[in-house]
Amino acid sequence: MVERYVMSIDQGTTSTRCILFDHRGRLVSVAQREHQHHFPRPGWVEHDAVEIWRNLQRIVPQAMDGAEADQVAAIGIANQRETTVLWDRTTGAPVGKAISWQDTRTDSLVEDLRRTTGDDFFLDRCSLPLATYFSAPRIRWLFDHVEGLHERAERGEVLFGTMETWLIWNLTGGPTGGLHITDVTNASRTMLMNTRTLTWDEDLLAYFGVPRSMLPEIRSSAESYAVAGSLLPGVRIGAALGDQQAALFGQTCFAPGEAKCTYGTGSFLLINTGTQVIRSRHGLLTTVGYKIKDEPAVYALEGPIAVTGSLVQWFRDSLGLISSAPEIETLARTVDDNGGCYIVPAFSGLYAPHWRSDARGVIVGLTSYITKGHLARAVLEATGWQTREVVDAMNADSPHSLKELKVDGGMTANNLLMQFVAEVLDVPVVRPMVAETVSLGAAYAAGLAVGYWPDLEGLRRNWHRAAQWLPDMDPERRESEYDNWQRAVERALGWIKPAKRSLS
């Protein structure tokens, strides 16, 4: 019998990967290609959408590695969320560069809008606070700064999408009939979709001045959308999810209370809240976790952390204290603790649970006793303490307190860090055999859509633990150190003493 596979396309912040998975969820082949980042001004971060599409055209044949198109049961797509692409419907040419989710050019616009509207207007409709993080302010900014763009959009000449929309449109024909769709997880990050109805919200469209004609159709995360017209002609496209929701799915967090954290450049902790929309009162984001075909949507609370792995990169590249990222664990193990030193990496503000773009990074507790080993440990511990802040907020918001944390991403190779996370959370931390959980989640959803896998329980049986870290810290010490961390965060938040703001 000829082996069949599911292909996953993971269009991420720094690269695009294409992976084939077999029926047991094992990685068969992988191809990857990085794309360039553009930083035209301070706070601006852009990508070239055409370069990303061309990269996909290069890596799909590499990932096939001798397999034929008829061996691919379906394609699933995971993508960097919130990154905004506008393009000409007729020519397929983007309207400038794609604006990355990391971009903060809309900061002043967001502050102006918040002063006139406040957050409740948005929280009641899209369950999100007004922030530079999301897509709608970027669309509004482009309308304000590109002459004639709004009029073109009103005439139906310009299309909007996040990266999965852009790729699906090109895979299915582009200017010659490409399918213009998004899924509920990505739509839930635009600030334009009503979280309860799962449709574009007329009040939000009017507020941001976004014509409905430029928006993609909202579909479920797992269904047979269409067949590819290029690269893999005839193969069904069966799933699209934002990358962090894909990781939740790949970690098989299908029950309320199950949670995962992806540790990469930044970190993203999501907890499944079932079919209930829970409005966070403690600085978290309410988001759609996934939706399978006609089944009810499953929701999640999310705590994004802006700087985790990138703090290690700063320690390596800007300070020059290590020559490679893995060396930080060895250096941190040269000391027994942080020596009273805490680092709050608010390089461009703090995300959850604070949502303060004006916060700035601080190093607290420096004395002549502190060595580079203490600094290395403080760098790692910053990730653990930020995780603790998010979990505390989740336990306060969710009816299901965290019992175990599933982890993935490049930083999980650091055993010292993972043990520290288990200590500060006081719950087991577990890592699966398959590390590529974002890609696997997109593959799982696509396979479900076409019957390659029968049900969620079948996917659970594919999940196997590779490593586990158990907590073993004295509770009094844990809480004392957490108090020290929180005082350091207050320094980061209060360095210019701005007025504090609540999301509730």
UniProtKB/TrEMBL annotation:
Binding site for sn-glycerol 3-phosphate: 13, 81-82, 133, 243
CDD domains per UniProt: ASKHA_NBD_FGGY_GK
Carbohydrate kinase FGGY N-terminal domain boundaries: 5-250
UniProt keyword Transferase present: yes
Regulation of its activity: Inhibited by fructose 1,6-bisphosphate (FBP).
A single GO cellular-component term on record: cytosol
Binding site for ADP: 13, 17, 265, 309, 410, 414
Metabolic or biological pathway: Polyol metabolism; glycerol degradation via glycerol kinase pathway; sn-glycerol 3-phosphate from glycerol: step 1/1
Gene3D superfamilies associated with the record: 3.30.420.40
Keyword hit for Cell inner membrane: no
UniProt-annotated binding residues for ATP: 13-15, 265, 309, 313, 410
Top-level lineage group: Bacteria
Catalytic activity: glycerol + ATP = sn-glycerol 3-phosphate + ADP + H(+)
Limits of the Carbohydrate kinase FGGY C-terminal domain: 259-449
Family, similarity comment: Belongs to the FGGY kinase family.
Cited function: Key enzyme in the regulation of glycerol uptake and metabolism. Catalyzes the phosphorylation of glycerol to yield sn-glycerol 3-phosphate.
Protein name: Glycerol kinase
Annotated organism of origin: Streptomyces himalayensis subsp. himalayensis
Lineage: Bacteria, Bacillati, Actinomycetota, Actinomycetes, Kitasatosporales
Designated gene of the protein: glpK
